[in-house]
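Re: that backbone. Tokens:
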């Protein structure tokens, strides 16, 4: 079950991809299948070991094309062990709502993303998430649980502040919101409640079979009660003016120095004319002054 829509977030073979907070690895596996060079990173060592096993199984089964690569590693989202501009693509799905310093995470993602690179961020949507919080304290008041609910404009604002340029949004998993409402109503850890069991079977059937009826139903429900809010953005290239700034500064120095030269030239002309009117015998001097003025002006230009 993918939250990122790769028809809106194109991935090319050979792209360097970081799946940050990869969890069970669902997006990392899809990127690997598409021929990317994937790094799946999470702070949960147990999940990372499982992801590494699945990567190995996919390679053995020939599910990834030639040139693709996959690495699973433990790491801290606030202190990524990569140089600047290391990745073409960064994905962070259903992670930022868990982290107190979400601005710090955004800053790290922007740092390791190359200029012109793309990023996909997904978080629980405000409305459905508010219902879950209202129905159950246990849903969010647990260690490592959700600590905030994002409004769409709030997330977009934080991404822009971090230096990203959002270019698209949508909602996903409209069929999944009712499931979590049932879980919260009957007890987050109570998987034996009949309504929860029945709805879970429906979701598994939908994921496995992908019938047209549920695909159409979810498409209709996504704008209304989609469980996730998805944002796609790019990291802009450095402005050309910033790159050319040193050259522009160097060129501006003679122009600044030219002002006194022009002033000297005008003074020389004025003095020459005045001297010529007062003393006829001074004409050769005036002519020389005009010539000097022209030379000064020419040098200034």
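Recovered sequence:
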């Amino acid at each position: 079950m993918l939250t990122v829509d790769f028809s809106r977030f194109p991935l090319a073979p050979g792209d360097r991809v970081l799946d940050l907070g990869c969890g069970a690895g669902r997006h990392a596996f899809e990127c690997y299948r598409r021929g990317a060079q994937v790094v799946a990173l999470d702070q949960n060592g147990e999940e990372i070991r499982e992801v590494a096993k699945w990567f190995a199984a996919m390679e053995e089964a020939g599910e990834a094309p030639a040139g693709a690569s996959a690495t699973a590693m433990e790491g801290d989202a606030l202190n990524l062990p990569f140089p600047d501009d290391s990745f073409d693509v960064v994905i962070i799905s259903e992670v930022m709502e868990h982290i107190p310093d979400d601005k710090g995470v955004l800053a790290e993602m922007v740092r390791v993303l190359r200029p012109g690179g793309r990023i996909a961020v997904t978080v629980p949507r405000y409305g459905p998430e508010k219902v879950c919080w209202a129905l159950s304290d246990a849903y969010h008041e647990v260690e490592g649980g959700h600590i905030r609910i994002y409004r769409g404009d709030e997330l977009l604002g934080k991404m822009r502040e971090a230096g990203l340029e959002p270019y698209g949004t949508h909602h996903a998993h409209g069929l999944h919101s009712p499931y979590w409402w049932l879980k919260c109503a009957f007890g987050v850890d109570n998987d034996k409640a009949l309504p929860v069991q029945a709805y879970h079977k429906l979701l598994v059937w939908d994921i496995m079979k992908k019938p047209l009826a549920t695909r159409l139903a979810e498409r209709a429900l996504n704008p209304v009660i989609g469980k996730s809010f998805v944002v796609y953005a790019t990291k802009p290239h450095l402005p050309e003016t910033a790159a050319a700034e040193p050259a522009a500064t160097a060129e501006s120095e003679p122009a600044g120095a030219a002002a006194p030269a022009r002033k000297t030239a005008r003074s020389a002309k004025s003095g020459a004319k005045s001297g010529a009117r007062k003393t006829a015998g001074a004409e050769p001097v005036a002519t020389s002054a005009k010539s000097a003025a022209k030379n000064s002006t020419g040098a200034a230009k």
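The chain has a mean pLDDT of 85. The chain has eleven helices and seven strands.
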